Amino acid sequence: TENKIAVERGRFNDAVKSFNARIKMFPARIVAGNLGYKDRPYFEAKPGSEVPPAVSFG
User: Fold this and answer.
1) Which among 25, 29, 31, 36 has the fewest CB atoms less than 10 Å away?
2) What is the DSSP string of the chain?
3) Which residues contact 54 (CB under 8 A, 6 or more apart)?
4) For 11, phi and psi rounded to 5 degrees?
5) Are 20 and 39 in contact (CB under 8 A)?
6) Could you tell me which of 41, 48, 47, 55 has the C-alpha nearest to residue 9?
């Protein structure tokens, strides 16, 4: 599952990169500005998320 998470994180960041680039290009820049679109941040894991949670089965 960690590989799946990494793949999806990469896909999300690729989509953000594409979105951010498109809203800076003419004529999309004009429309994006009028609609209030702004750059979106890339995904960043929160500190401590690399540590798996403790699981108890009994």
Assistant:
1) 36
2) -HHHHHHHHHHHHHHHHHHHHHTTSTTHHHHHHHHT----PPP-PPTTTTSPPP----
3) none
4) -65, -45
5) yes
6) 41
pLDDT score at 20: 97
pTM of the predicted model, to two decimals?
0.74
Question: Is the link from the previous residue into 27 a cis peptide, with omega within 30 of 0?
Answer: yes
Structure tokens belonging to residue 32: 């994006």
Average pLDDT of every residue of the chain: 92
Cα 43–chain centre separation: 4
Residue 52's pLDDT is 82
Whole-number Å distance between alpha carbons of 15 and 18: 5
Residue found under tokens 């979106």 = 40
